[in-house]
Amino acid sequence: MKFMKLGSKPDLFQSSSENTRYVAAELATDIIVNVCNVKFYLHKFPLLSKSGRFQKMMTISHDENAIEIDLHEIPGGPGGFEICAKFCYGMTVTLNAYNVVVARCAAEYLEMHETIDKGNLVYKTEVFLDSSIFRTWKDSIIVFQTTKSLLLTSSSDELKIVNRCLDSIASKASMDPCKVEWSYTYNRTKSENGNETPLYNGVRKQVMVPKDWWVEDLCELPVDLYKKVITTIRGKGKVSLDVLGESLKAYTQRRLKNGGDDVKIRSLIETIMFLLPKEKTSVSCDFLIQLLHESVRLDCGETRRRELGQRIGQQLQNALVSDLVNLDVDLVQELVKIFMMQDQIADNGDEHGFLEFTDLAEIVSTLPRISHDGIYRAIDTFLKEHPGMSKIEKKRVCRLMDCRKLSSEACMHAIQNERLPLRIVVQILFFEQIRAGSHWSSRSGTTNTEEEWDSVPTSEELKSLKGEFGSLRIKDGGNGNRKAKGMVMSTRILSKLFSSKDKDSDNESSETSGSPSPCSTNVREMKSNSGSRSRRRSTS
């Protein structure tokens, strides 16, 4: 840290109580200066020799009683005034990054200019700021933090100190990393880990500074100051958007880790949302999901939630299961819908959209859920938007849905859905009939072969099956509380539907099989179990 020593006389300021400061000297004091709740017992002459304000406020008096004046509005309060007073006495004062702004603003208030005395405090502090503080990364940040003091805000703004701090910090953050030598967090982390620069032919080579070297350094700033810094850095236009995104992520995670009340966290989320670059690739998907989770938890409003949802949906293919587990299932389904409806899929062609959709749907389908109605709606929307998909692609998409977890309402919609492969429709019909007859038990079964997926019933058979199922639904009223009697589907139709593969498999072309489907349960085994249960009931 840079510093500047002023004066040479010893420090004679002492305290007689918590709120009293005086100069220990043989000459009696002749002026009392009240600053906030502190009284300073001083001598008029040193103050008059350096301060234009004191010259205006005081008149020469021969009275024995000391003059008493108030300076409650001086920037920096008692501390700022004491620095100026010591300078007036010629006592040793050490300026550094923590007190130079206080001294500069207080000196301006007391009018300690060159017109009063050469080499006055205003001049000294300006030289120190320009020649040392604003040339140093660490000191620029410290000085900027000191401007947050309530009594310094207006004065530092008038002196352009805040803007000068911002320009210093932003300029250094915008520099080419190969020219950076003074990142204090980067160097400190390196030394703490014991990582010395490597030797090459006996010569120690300087490790290249990463382009986001400054990110961690700004995490100590309060939210309002951080907002000003990032806005200034973006305004210079020399820092890549991905580095800005990393800065926002690091700052948010540090603040959330430190905790705080919901009001402060809500303010943080609002600020970060304001600072997010508009380009969709500038911020990682996991960070956006984290912001969405916090905004929903804190009820930041529908506008914020919708804005984040749109951004996440544009790059949801980059999400991991671990990123989504903390979100509500309905919210995840909404993100999937946004992802599918984005223009990028249509612009990039069906094949590209299909690869992205299947990857994403596989992630979503692994999340624990009781119902797969949302996945069915997503698949149906995707099939509607991509009518030119091949049979293989349709089968791969539909494998991501567990037909056993569809509600009765979703089943009724699906069996009338001509966009679904007929084989899927048949399986949905079968599972719904088993559930209707109370024959279904929740267990995992073996998967069908590729030929079972390819073999489909005739349109007449499917129509008959739909009609029979639909009539059962009407009789039952669709309430799901069916009795076994009168609910058993035609064994002849089901047998023919699922045995048709044996007749047609020789005439079908071979296709590359995909991953097993949760909906592809061995129907023969289920039929056999169902039949055996029927026989047991008939003989009992």
Automatic annotation (TrEMBL):
Pathway, per record = Protein modification; protein ubiquitination
Q: What keywords sit in the KW lines? A: Ubl conjugation pathway
Q: Organism source for this protein?
A: Lactuca virosa
- Show the InterPro entries listed in the entry: BTB/POZ_dom, NPH3/RPT2-like, NPH3_dom, SKP1/BTB/POZ_sf
What is the name of this protein? Answer: NPH3 domain-containing protein
Describe the location of the BTB domain by residue ranges: 29-97
Q: Where is this region: Disordered?
A: 440-459, 496-540
Residue limits of the NPH3 domain? 212-435
